[in-house]
Amino acid sequence: MQPAELSAVDLVTAVRQGDLSAVHCTEAFLRRIEALDGSINAFLKVDREGALASAARIDERRRAGGPIGPLAGLPIAVKDALCTANLPTTCGSKMLQGFRPPYDADTVRRLREADAVIVGKTNMDEFAMGGSNENSAFGPVKNPWDLSRAPGGSSGGSAACVAADMAPVAIGSDTGGSIRQPAGLCGITGLKPTYGRVSRRGLVAFASSLDQIGPMARSAADCALVLETIAGHDPGDSTSLCDEVPRYTEMLEQPLTGVRIGRVRDHYAEGLDPEVARGVEEAFAVFTAAGATIHDVELPHAKYGVATYYLIAPCEASSNLARYDGAHYGHRSSQRTGDGFESPLLEMYCRSRAEGFGPEVKRRIMLGTYALSAGYYDAYYAKALKVRRLIRQDYLDAFRHVDLIGGPVSATPAFRLGEKTGDPLAMYLVDLYTVATNLAGVGGISFPCGFTRSGLPVGFQLQGPALAEPLLLRATDRFQRLTDWHLRRPKAIA
Amino acid sequence: MTSAASPTAEPFTTIVGLEVHVQLQTLTKLFCGCSTAFGSPPNTQVCPTCLGLPGSLPVMNRKAFELAVRAALALNCRIAPFTKWDRKNYFYPDLPKGYQISQFDLPFSSDGQLEVVDPKGAFAPRTVGIVRVHLEEDAGKSMHDEAAGTADTRIDLNRAGTPLCEIVTQPDLRSPQEARAWLNELKLLLVYLGVSDCNMQEGSLRVDANVNLHIPQPDGRIAKTPIVEIKNMNSFRSVERALTYEAARQWEEWQATKVEMGRMPKQTRGWDDPAGITRPQRQKEESSDYRYFPEPDLVPVTVDEPQLARIRAAMGAPPTELRRTLADRWKIPAYDADVLVNQGRELVAYFEAVATAVADGKLASNWMQQDVLRTLNERGGTIGEFPVRPEQVAEIIGRVQKGEFDTSRGREIFAEVLSSGRPVADVVAALGIAAVSDDELIALCRELIAANPKIVADVQGGKEQAAAGLIGQAKKKNPNANPGKVRQMCLELIRGM
Question: Which chain A residue's Cα is nearest to B100?
């Protein structure tokens, strides 16, 4: 069997048992990247030499009888929003073109220490702002199921590279749906853990109170394997949780008998594609067959989720992105005309930011700056914080009656590239079903639950209470034992 | 200090409020592990966090928070049980994140006060309200190289992220002299508590002042001049000078324009120390909308009573308390206690060692002020480096008390111990100091009385102070002669004649 066809769990087992060398495994995926990525554009940087060198070191250590980590030999693609000490980290922006961080993100450090092999950095919407990957400064990613369609975003490169078997696992980040939505549109499994479960240190910040790193893979079992390594308290991130990390991989077996899954009526409002609605209903039926019970629940303030999110996230972003001023690192404009600028310094700031940021990033910086301004703060940011608390309370209330909440991950299957680029508001609505999870700080997972007639994946989302990752993974794993949607591969690139 | 002109002589009252920034004496920065040491080569004490690199995160330094709480407690502030961090957003090259982590609407402490008393009574005791004390990170330093044509600005981020306490007072000060005295008291307090070294040259204490005038009008109304913020004062002396200048300037402006507060925006002026004047500073075009919002990278801080008790217990006595304690324990005047305490904790310990050994606080205090402090001031350095140790001072005083020699001989011995570094006993021997027997003394007095009939006649005529002439001569003939005894004996001998 080709390594690219094996699950992450099987790959690490094969490497551990000596049935497969880390180098062989890495080479197999690098070959897929070389063959396919020209048409998909999932990678911003492929680190062939670095990956093969670390794979060789792992093999050598294993042969010498030395200890090897739990992810030994597992190729992993990392979203370019995470800092990597020896690799460029652009965050999909011209602003950071050529920037090489002097340190590894905590997640990257944990992956390296677990002997995972980092094969490259994946494409993304600039500064993780977008739902289609069309906001990348380095060209859009194509959906492997239909190259004329978007893979979703912002972790579109991570989703597409797993969907096309260019890596068995990828790391994404999710601020308002950026793991779950592209996972859904690309037919893979993506987990957004509880806020604080994975350290944000070294994740280039978009909206600090919402950002969360998580695994993207072909199955819940593979996500569980990677989450065990990347989760855990980091003294370098004050918002990371101290709770002990459970053995997710060992908690998948228990059946779903008696697990209560909530269904939100508002999820079936106007705008939900009928084929998506059908796939979601069929998924509920699978869960029922697995022993779970389905209950109607209310999230009365969820309808304000997108509005709330598009205040809080831009406000934080406007501040987080202030550091990109051309003074210390990143893009600095060389133009100095003096025309209309109060000072050369101001001209450097303005030109560097004007040249370095793309239109969506600028739009959100302006939105956030406006909403935080004196005289508008109370009407916008302060009010958004209040609604956020109501949304969080909705979830707390709902989780007194159900264990999980199920539903669609996005209203439509993958849309065509360019279809929404002229309409920012339409693009913002792709986060409709996902933003509330981040606002509430809880966890969510998305996975394929069917396909449209034209062969596009349909995603299902489960949300759980804080630190319910074991149940989210177990429910998804159970679903994947009963169905084979997650095993389908795109024909377009086979 | 020169005595100030009487405030009543001026047709206005000067109203002053201060905003003081002090760097806390921590080893590491507020949100990362970099050293806060002063004077290292530029940009050598930096890391991803204080450089504001992408993905970096702050983690609060607990020690800094404790020191800040210590300062606030000493300023009699209310400590908030819940406090949070906020971002203050503005662009400047020495602010690498584009925002400063500070505290906005929920500072960790507020509503305090600190009294300043002038022991010489130059002004009435003044209690100055503290609006708030909050903690924030310092920015880096911009060094503008304005050499012809180049006008480069160099950035040193070693200071970026150093913990800074901002102390804001009520406009309770009523003269430039009071402002200076209050700052001295604040500095003393913070140094006593180990909160800050308050070194203004190194920038670990910075002061801005807000000043305006209250001018009584003939109709009984009080006219108030527009408030001016003065920046760029690099010593307490310049604070006093700048405020004095600014009060005079505002008075002149008032007489010319009659413009009152509220009719123009608050002005910022910079103090030009060599020129001795304040100059208007360029106003920022968009006046300070810092778009404060809660810092999402840090968790709020809660403070409970056991924590406060622990911080209080580790605090030590503040200067005001120590002045009272010293005055009570050693029966010394308030003025003496003030002088001693104002020199710092080490000198107080020195004094108490001397006072304990000689069991006489006033005597020890006199020696501290007339000998130890005077020579310390001449020599420079700290009391810890002073070559004459408290045991030695006590030994000299003890021998004076026993009558081995008089105070002026004691002073000579002190000076010799100081310059030679030899033990007191050696110096006493070397100077030929020896006790004089009563017989020797009587012989000496008789000789002097015989040689000075005029003095004898004066004393007999009732002018006992004329005996001083005999004492002077006695000292010349025998430097070891105790003047008190000489005087007593001579008077007895003359009366018996």
Answer: A319
The DSSP output letter for B221 is -
B2 lies in some domain: no
Q: Is B98 close to A102, i.e. CB distance below 8 A?
A: no
B449 assigned to some structural domain: yes
Do B57 and A236 lie within an 8 Å CB cutoff? Answer: yes
Helices A106-113 and A220-230 meet at what angle, rounded to 10?
A: 100
Whether B204 and B296 map to the same domain: the answer is yes
Instruction: Collapse the DSSP code of B94 into the 3-class scheme (helix H, G, I; strand E, B; otherwise coil) and give the result.
Output: coil
The residue annotated as part of the active site, out of A21, A45, A54, A79, is A79
Tell me whether residue A79 is one of the annotated catalytic residues. Answer: yes
Using the predicted structure, report yes or no on whether residue B445 has a pLDDT greater than 90.
no
Across the interface, which of A237, A325, A372 has its CB nearest the CB of B291? A372
The domain locations on chain A are: 3-257
> Across chain B, which distance is largest between two alpha carbons, in Å?
100
Pairing verdict, β B228-233 and B267-272: parallel
In this complex, which of B52, B57, B155 lies closest to A323 when CB atoms are compared? B52
Which among A203, A374, A377 has the least Cβ separation from residue B55?
A203
Q: What is the pLDDT of residue A492?
A: 63
B182 and B328 share one domain: no
User: What domain range is B453 assigned to?
Assistant: 438-495
Contact B289 A103 (CB under 8 A): no
Chain B closest-CA separation from residue A210 CA (Å) = 9
**Which DSSP string do the residues of A413-451 spell out, in sequence order?**
SPPBTTSSTT-HHHHHGGGTTTHHHHHHT-EEEEEEEEE
Report in angstroms the alpha-carbon separations of A492 from A142, A271, A382, B259: 11, 28, 48, 79
User: Mean pLDDT, to the nearest integer, of B209-228?
Assistant: 95
Asked if the Cβ–Cβ distance from A329 to B87 is below 8 Å, we say no
Residues B156 and B266 in one domain: yes
Residues B398 and B299 in one domain: no
> In chain B, what residues touch A353 (CB-CB under 8 Å)?
none
Q: Is residue B1 part of a domain?
A: no
Average pLDDT estimate for B81-102: 96
- Looking at the fold, whether B184 and B159 belong to one and the same domain comes out as yes
Last residue of a domain, one of B248, B276, B308: B308
Instruction: List the Cα angle B114/B120/B125 in 5-degree steps.
Output: 30
The model's pLDDT over B9-27, given as tens digits with 9 standing for 90+, comes to 789 999 999 999 999 999 9
CATH of the domain at B456: 1.10.10
B286 and B185 within one domain: yes
pLDDT-based confidence at residue B3 (cuts at 50, 70, 90) = very low
Hunting for tokens 């992993």 — which residue is that?
A76
Catalytic (active site) residue A39: no
**CA distance to partner chain A, nearest, from residue B299 (Å):** 6
Say whether pLDDT at B63 is over 80. yes
Note the pLDDT of residue B4. Answer: 44
Q: Are residues B378 and B478 in the same domain?
A: no
In the three-class reduction of DSSP (H, G, I as helix; E, B as strand; rest coil), residue A261 is classed as strand
Exposed e or buried b per residue across A401-427, where buried means at least 16 C-beta atoms within 10 angstroms of its C-beta: ebbbbbbbbbbbbbbebebbbeeeeeb
Q: Has residue B232 got a pLDDT over 80?
A: yes
Q: Which of A174, A178, A173, A180 is nearest to A153 (CA)?
A: A178
Number of domains in chain B: 3
Q: What is the pLDDT of residues A57-96, one digit of tens each?
A: 999 999 999 999 999 999 999 999 999 998 999 999 999 9
* Domain boundary, last residue among B290, B308, B326: B308
H or E stretch including A384?
helix A383-398
Q: Sign of torsion, CA A472 A473 A478 A480?
A: positive
**A3-257 is a CATH 3.90.180.10 domain:** no
- Chain A nearest CA to B421, separation (Å): 54
Task: Say if residue B225 is in the same domain as residue B337.
Answer: no
Q: How confident is residue B429, by pLDDT bands cut at 50, 70 and 90?
A: confident
